[in-house]
Amino acid sequence: MILSAVLNPWLVAALTFGLALALLGALRVYQVRARPRPELARKLFHLSGGLFGLSLPWLFDALAPVLALAAAMTGLFAALRTVPALRDGPGQVLAGVRRRSVGEFCFVASFCLLFWLARGDRLLYAVPLLVLAVADTFAALVGAEYGISRFRTWKGRKSLEGSAAFFLAAFLCVWLPLRLFTDTPRLESLFIGVNLALMVMMAEAAAWWGLDNLVIPLFGFALLKIFLPMEAVQLAGHLAFLLAISLFVRLWRSRTTLADDALFGVSLWGYGAWALADWRWVVPPLLVILTYTAVTRRTPHDHFRAFNFPVVLANITAGLLWLLLYRASGLADGFYFYPFATAFAANLAIIALVRNRHADPGAPWPWALLAAIGKGALLLAPSLLLVDGVTPAAAVNLLVGTVAVVISTAAFALLQPALADYPVGTARWLRQALVTTGGSALVLLPHLGLPWELGP
Question: Considering the entire predicted model, what is its pTM?
Answer without folding.
Answer: 0.85
